[in-house]
C-alpha cells in the first residue's frame, strides 16, 4: 500500500524525465525509441534559454528579498513583545494561506494600474511576498531553538547590537536562513499562476512558456523544459539538505 | 502581625510616587527589535496588503459601489454550480489525500531513521517539483493512448482517456497535494512519544487498542489539519483544473481567471476571489483553533 | 573608600509586580559579595539590572564612580558568567574567549587569550568547541571569557548550579583562588548557603525583592537580623515569642515553652513586642537532669524522632508545652536519646536571640 502510494508520488515526475528522451516528435508513453533530439531543440531554441535565464534572475531577486524581509521579521517577532505583535505575524505569515489565484488577481490589478505588467523586477517583488512566510517559518523555528542568553552574553561582553547579530545570532541561523532562501527561490522559479496574469508579452518565464506549450502544442520539447525545472528544484533541495546537515553539525557542536 | 521593620518583607501596597520614573530612556534593544519587525511589516504592507486590499475593495466598487456582484454570484446558477464543483472536488481530494497520506506518514515515522530519510525523499522530491510539470505528466499519463488509459483499458473497455474529466482533476490534484498531509502528519507522529503506546500495552491494551486509544487521538489534530490544508489549497487551485479538467470541471479559480482575462468582468472576479479568500482564511483559522485546543500535536 | 559597584534606591517592577524593592548596596573594590536567596527573591534580577540586560524602574546604579543606569550592556564593562554559560556554540574555546577583546578591538588579543586560558587551565582545549567539553570545562570557558577583558566587576549567576556535587566543591575553591589572583570585584548569585558562606567576603540575603541583611558570613550566621535570615542560613529553632520585660535581660514568653526565657539584651533586635525566639541547635545542651545554675534557660522535652545524617544525628524533640525543638549530636554520642525518653535542654541567654518576624 505504502509502496503504491510512494510510486504514485514519484512515477509522474520520472515519466516527464523519461519522456524528454523520446525518439519521436509527439508525446508517447511508453517511449518509441530514445534520442536527445529534444534536448538539441531546447538548447538550440533561444526562447527556451531566455525563459530559463529570466526565471533564474527573477527567482534570485525574489529569494534575496524574501530572505532579508523574512529573516529580519523572524528576529523582530522573536524579540519584540509590544503591541501589534500578533497582527504583524498574521500579515507576514498570511501569504501562505491566501490562494495564489487571489494574489495573481491582486498583482494583475496593481501592475495594470501602475503600468508594471511585464516588468521582471515587479514580478520578482510579487514572488518575494510568496517566499516570506517560508523564510519566516524556517528562521522562527531556528530562533526558538536558539538560547536567547547568547545574545545577552555577546552584549555584556562588549559587542554592540550589529556585531551581536552578525557574529552570534546569524551564524546560528545560517542553515535555517539558507533553507528558507532556497525554498523561496524554488517557489519563484517555477511559479505558474501569477505569471499568467502579469507577464504581459515581455516577461516569458520558463513556467509561462511551459504553460503556453502545454496549452497549445504539447511537444516533447516541453518535457525537456520540465526536466530542467525538476533538476533545478531537486538539485536545490539536495543542496539545502546537504548544507543544512553541514551547517547544522557546526551549529550543534 | 503588624511588624514594621528596617528590612520589610514584601513591599505591601507598593511604594509611593517615586516608583516609576517617567520618560526614562529605555535600553536600545527593544527599540531595535521594533525596527527589525517594523521594516518588514512596512514592506509587506506596501507590496502585499495594499494590492490584496485594493482587490477586495474592487469587489464592492466595480462596476458600481454596492453588493451587486455578491448578489449576482449567489444567484447565478452557473456560478453556484462552479462553487459546488470546486468544493466537491476539493473535498474529494482532501479525503483521498488523508486516506493515502496517513499510512505513508505512519510508515515513515516508524521506519528506522536511515530508511525513513531515503523514503522521505520520494515524498519531498515531487513536493519540490513544479506543479505545472506534474500536471503535464498527468496529461501524458491520462490522455488517449496514455499509460494509465491503456492499463485501465480492460476495465473501461474503451481507449478514451480520463483526461479532461473530474477523475483526472482529482487524481492529479491528489498527486500534487499529497505531500502536504504526509509531511504534516509525519511531523506530528514523530513527536508522539513511542513510550506512550508501550505504556498503554503494559497497562493491558492490545496493539490495536493501544493504537486506537493512544496513537490515533494524538495524531488526530494533525491529520485533520493536513486534510483541511489540502482542502483549502484545492479550493483555490488553478493550474491543474485548467490543464487536466474540461469545461465542466471549471473551478472558482478557473472562472476568476476567465473573468479577468476573457470577459473583463473584474468586479465579479474580485468578488469570487474575496469569497475564496474568506473561505481560505476562515478554514486556516479553524485549523489553528482545532490544533491549539487539542494541544500537543500541532501541524 | 568609594564603592566599585553601588545600587542607590533601585526598584525593578515587572508591570505591577515588584521584583527588586528599594535596593541600596555598595560593593567594595576586590570584594566578593554574594546575593543569597530562594528562587524568586530578586537576586538574579538584581544581577541582570546591573549587567544592563534589564532596565531599572527607578534608582541609580554606579560602577567605578560612573553612573551606568541607562547605559547599554556592551558599554558597561561588566563580565557576566551566565547560569547556563551561554557559550557561543559555533566558536572554539579560544574564539569564545577572544570575543570580548575582538568586540573592543583590543590590542594583543592573542597574548591575553593565552593568559586567560592558562589561568583557567584550558590551554589544551583551546581548539575544542563547547559541545565537546564537560560541564566543568564549559564553566571555566565562561569564566575565562568573562574576565579576559578586565571588567570593572565580575558577575556570576549560579555558576556552579549545573555541576554535580563533587565538581561543585572543587570549582568553588578554584573560583575563589582565581578571584584572589585576578583581584576582581565579584558579585555572585546563589541559592546555596554553603557556597555563600564558604566563598564570600560579605553575603546579602534577599527575600521577596528586599535585601534583608548584608554582612560577613560569620555575622550573618551568628547575628541574623530577622527570622527569615535565621531560617534561610543553617539550621535554626525558631519559635513565636512575646517580650514580657526588657531590663538587664529580655524576658520572653515563648509559645509552647513553660516559664520565662531569658535573652541577652544585645540579642534582642526585635522591633515589636512579638517576634520569634531563635537559637542554633548546636548551642543547645542536652542533659538527663535539670542543670543547676539559675539564669540558664532550661526546657524539659521528649525525643520524638531521630534522623541519621552520617557523621551527625539530628534529634527532634518536643517540649512539654508543645514547642518543637531539635539538637544535633555527633553520631554515637546520643545513645541515651531514644525515642520517647525525656531530657532537659538548656542554653545561656547569650545563645538565644529575639528577632523580628519576617516570613
UniProtKB/TrEMBL annotation, chain A:
A Pfam family for this UniProt protein? BPD_transp_1
Location within or outside the cell: Cell inner membrane; Cell membrane
Q: Name one GO cellular component term.
A: plasma membrane
Q: Which domain of life is it from?
A: Bacteria
Which InterPro entries does this entry report, sorted A to Z? Answer: MetI-like, MetI-like_sf
Topology term for the membrane: Multi-pass membrane protein
Which GO biological process categories is it annotated with? transmembrane transport
Residues passing through the membrane, by range: 58-78, 90-111, 117-137, 173-198, 218-247
Taking every annotated instance into account, which residue ranges of this chain make up the domain ABC transmembrane type-1? 52-240
Keywords from UniProt, A to Z, are: Cell inner membrane, Cell membrane, Membrane, Transmembrane, Transmembrane helix, Transport
Task: Please give the Gene3D superfamilies that the UniProt record associates with this protein.
Answer: MetI-like
* Coiled-coil blocks: none
Under PROSITE patterns, the record lists:
ABC_TM1
Tell me the protein family, please: Belongs to the binding-protein-dependent transport system permease family.
Query: Which protein is depicted?
Result: ABC transporter permease
From TrEMBL, chain B:
Q: Which InterPro entries match?
A: MetI-like (IPR000515), MetI-like_sf (IPR035906)
- Membrane topology summary: Multi-pass membrane protein
Pfam families found in the cross-reference section: BPD_transp_1
Q: Which GO terms describe its biological process?
A: transmembrane transport
Residue span of region Disordered: 1-24
Q: Where on the tree of life does the source sit, at the highest rank?
A: Bacteria
Query: Where does this one sit in the cell?
Result: Cell membrane
Identify the CDD domains for this entry: TM_PBP2
Cellular component (GO) terms are: plasma membrane
| Keyword Membrane carried by entry | yes
Chain ranges of the ABC transmembrane type-1 domain: 83-287
Q: Which UniProt keywords apply?
A: Cell membrane, Membrane, Transmembrane, Transmembrane helix, Transport
What are the transmembrane regions? 30-50, 89-109, 118-141, 161-189, 210-239, 266-287
Please state which protein family the record places this protein in. Answer: Belongs to the binding-protein-dependent transport system permease family. CysTW subfamily.
**Which PANTHER family does the protein's record reference?**
ABC TRANSPORTER PERMEASE PROTEIN, INNER MEMBRANE ABC TRANSPORTER PERMEASE PROTEIN YDCU-RELATED-RELATED
Protein name, please?
Answer: ABC transporter permease
| Species, as recorded | Streptosporangium carneum
Classification from the root reads: Bacteria, Bacillati, Actinomycetota, Actinomycetes, Streptosporangiales
UniProtKB/TrEMBL annotation, chain C:
**Domain ABC transporter per the UniProt entry, residue ranges:** 5-233
GO CC entries: ATP-binding cassette (ABC) transporter complex
Would the keyword Transport be found if you checked this record's keyword annotation? yes
One GO molecular-function annotation for this sequence? ATP hydrolysis activity
Q: Does the keyword Transport apply?
A: yes
Against Gene3D superfamilies, the record matches this protein to:
2.40.50.100, P-loop containing nucleotide triphosphate hydrolases
Keywords carried by this UniProt record? ATP-binding, Nucleotide-binding, Transport
Under PROSITE patterns, the record lists: ABC_TRANSPORTER_1, ABC_TRANSPORTER_2
> Cross-referenced PANTHER family, in alphabetical order?
SPERMIDINE/PUTRESCINE IMPORT ATP-BINDING PROTEIN POTA (PTHR42781), SPERMIDINE_PUTRESCINE IMPORT ATP-BINDING PROTEIN POTA (PTHR42781:SF6)
Name of this protein: Polyamine-transporting ATPase
Amino acid at each position: 500500500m505504502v509502496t503504491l502510494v510512494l510510486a504514485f508520488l514519484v512515477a509522474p515526475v520520472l515519466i516527464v524525465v523519461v519522456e524528454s528522451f523520446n525518439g519521436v516528435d509527439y508525446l508517447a508513453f511508453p517511449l518509441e525509441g530514445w534520442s536527445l533530439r529534444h534536448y538539441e531543440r531546447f538548447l538550440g531554441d533561444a526562447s527556451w534559454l531566455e525563459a530559463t535565464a529570466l526565471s533564474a534572475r527573477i527567482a534570485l531577486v525574489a529569494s534575496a528579498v524574501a530572505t532579508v524581509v523574512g529573516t529580519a521579521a523572524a528576529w523582530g517577532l522573536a524579540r519584540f513583545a509590544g503591541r501589534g505583535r500578533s497582527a504583524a505575524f498574521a500579515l507576514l505569515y498570511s501569504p501562505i494561506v491566501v490562494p495564489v489565484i487571489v494574489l495573481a488577481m491582486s498583482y494583475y490589478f496593481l501592475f495594470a494600474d501602475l503600468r508594471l505588467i511585464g516588468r521582471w523586477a515587479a514580478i520578482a517583488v510579487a514572488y518575494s511576498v510568496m517566499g516570506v512566510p517560508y523564510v519566516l517559518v524556517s528562521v522562527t523555528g531556528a530562533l526558538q531553538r536558539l538560547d536567547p542568553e547568547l545574545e545577552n552574553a555577546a552584549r555584556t561582553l562588549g559587542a554592540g547590537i550589529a556585531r551581536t547579530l552578525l557574529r552570534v545570532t546569524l551564524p546560528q541561523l545560517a542553515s535555517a536562513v539558507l533553507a528558507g532562501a532556497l525554498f523561496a527561490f524554488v517557489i519563484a522559479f517555477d511559479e505558474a499562476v501569477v505569471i499568467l496574469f502579469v507577464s504581459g508579452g515581455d516577461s516569458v518565464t520558463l513556467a509561462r512558456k511551459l504553460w503556453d506549450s502545454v496549452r497549445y502544442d504539447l511537444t516533447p520539447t516541453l518535457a525537456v523544459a520540465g526536466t530542467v525545472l525538476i533538476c533545478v528544484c531537486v538539485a536545490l533541495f539536495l543542496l539545502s539538505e546537504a548544507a543544512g546537515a553541514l551547517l547544522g553539525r557546526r551549529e550543534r557542536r | 502581625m503588624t511588624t514594621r521593620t528596617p528590612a520589610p518583607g514584601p513591599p505591601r501596597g507598593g511604594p509611593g510616587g517615586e516608583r516609576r520614573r517617567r520618560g526614562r530612556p529605555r535600553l536600545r534593544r527593544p527599540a531595535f527589535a521594533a525596527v527589525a519587525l517594523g521594516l518588514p511589516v512596512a514592506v509587506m504592507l506596501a507590496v502585499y496588503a495594499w494590492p490584496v486590499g485594493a482587490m477586495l475593495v474592487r469587489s464592492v466598487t466595480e462596476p458600481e459601489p454596492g453588493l451587486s456582484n455578491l448578489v449576482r454570484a449567489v444567484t447565478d446558477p452557473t456560478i453556484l454550480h462552479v462553487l459546488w464543483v470546486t468544493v466537491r472536488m476539493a473535498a474529494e481530494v482532501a479525503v483521498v489525500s488523508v486516506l493515502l497520506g496517513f499510512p505513508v506518514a505512519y510508515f515513515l515515522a516508524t521506519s528506522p531513521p536511515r530508511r525513513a530519510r531515503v523514503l522521505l525523499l520520494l515524498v519531498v522530491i515531487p513536493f519540490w517539483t513544479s506543479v505545472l510539470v506534474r500536471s503535464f505528466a498527468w496529461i501524458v499519463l491520462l490522455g488517449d493512448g496514455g499509460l494509465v488509459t491503456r492499463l485501465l483499458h480492460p476495465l473501461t473497455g474503451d481507449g478514451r482517456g480520463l483526461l479532461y474529466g473530474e477523475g483526472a482533476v482529482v487524481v492529479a490534484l491528489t498527486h500534487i497535494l499529497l505531500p502536504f498531509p504526509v509531511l504534516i502528519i509525519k511531523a506530528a507522529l514523530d513527536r508522539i512519544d513511542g513510550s506512550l503506546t508501550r505504556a498503554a500495552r503494559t497497562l493491558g491494551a492490545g496493539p490495536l487498542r493501544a493504537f486506537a486509544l493512544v496513537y490515533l487521538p494524538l495524531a488526530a489534530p494533525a491529520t485533520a489539519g493536513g486534510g483541511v490544508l489540502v482542502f483549502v489549497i484545492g479550493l483555490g487551485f488553478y493550474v491543474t483544473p485548467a490543464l487536466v479538467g474540461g469545461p465542466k470541471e471549471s473551478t472558482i479559480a478557473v472562472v476568476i481567471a476567465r473573468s479577468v482575462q476573457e470577459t473583463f468582468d473584474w468586479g465579479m472576479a474580485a468578488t469570487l476571489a474575496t469569497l475564496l479568500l474568506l473561505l481560505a482564511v476562515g478554514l486556516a483559522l479553524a485549523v489553528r483553533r482545532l490544533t491549539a485546543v487539542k494541544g500537543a500535536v500541532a501541524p | 573608600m568609594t564603592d566599585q559597584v553601588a545600587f542607590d534606591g533601585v526598584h525593578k517592577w515587572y508591570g505591577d509586580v515588584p521584583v527588586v524593592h528599594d535596593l541600596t548596596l555598595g560593593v567594595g573594590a576586590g570584594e566578593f559579595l554574594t546575593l543569597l536567596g530562594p528562587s524568586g527573591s530578586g537576586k538574579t534580577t538584581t544581577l541582570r539590572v546591573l549587567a544592563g540586560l534589564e532596565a531599572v524602574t527607578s534608582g541609580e546604579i554606579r560602577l567605578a564612580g560612573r553612573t551606568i543606569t541607562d547605559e547599554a550592556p556592551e558599554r558597561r564593562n561588566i563580565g557576566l558568567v551566565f547560569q547556563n554559560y551561554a557559550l557561543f556554540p559555533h566558536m572554539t574555546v579560544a574564539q569564545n574567549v577572544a570575543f570580548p577583546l575582538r568586540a573592543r578591538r583590543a590590542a594583543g588579543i592573542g597574548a591575553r587569550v593565552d593568559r586567560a586560558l592558562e589561568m583557567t587551565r584550558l590551554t589544551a582545549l583551546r581548539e575544542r568547541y563547547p559541545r565537546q567539553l564537560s560541564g566543568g570545562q564549559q564553566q571555566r570557558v565562561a569564566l575565562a571569557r568573562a574576565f579576559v577583558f578586565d571588567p570593572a566587576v565580575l558577575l556570576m549567576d549560579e555558576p556552579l548550579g549545573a555541576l554535580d556535587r563533587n565538581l561543585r566543591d572543587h570549582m568553588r575553591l578554584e573560583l575563589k583562588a582565581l578571584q584572589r589572583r585576578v583581584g576582581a570585584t565579584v558579585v555572585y548569585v546563589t541559592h546555596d548557603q554553603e557556597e555563600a558562606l564558604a566563598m564570600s567576603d560579605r553575603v546579602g540575603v534577599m527575600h521577596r525583592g528586599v535585601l534583608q541583611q548584608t554582612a560577613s558570613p560569620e555575622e550573618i550566621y551568628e547575628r541574623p537580623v530577622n527570622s527569615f535570615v535565621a531560617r534561610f542560613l543553617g539550621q535554626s529553632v525558631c519559635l513565636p515569642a512575646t517580650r514580657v520585660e526588657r531590663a538587664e535581660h529580655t524576658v520572653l514568653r515563648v509559645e509552647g515553652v513553660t516559664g520565662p526565657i531569658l535573652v541577652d539584651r544585645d540579642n534582642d533586635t526585635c522591633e515589636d513586642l512579638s517576634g520569634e525566639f531563635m537559637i542554633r541547635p548546636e548551642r543547645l545542651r542536652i542533659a538527663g537532669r535539670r542543670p543547676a545554675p539559675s539564669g540558664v534557660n532550661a526546657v524539659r522535652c521528649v525525643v520524638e524522632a531521630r534522623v541519621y545524617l552520617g557523621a551527625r544525628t539530628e534529634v527532634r524533640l518536643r517540649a512539654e508545652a508543645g514547642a518543637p525543638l531539635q539538637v544535633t549530636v555527633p553520631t554515637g554520642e546520643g545513645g541515651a536519646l531514644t525515642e520517647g525518653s525525656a531530657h532537659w535542654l538548656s542554653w545561656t541567654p547569650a545563645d538565644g536571640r529575639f528577632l523580628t518576624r519576617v516570613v
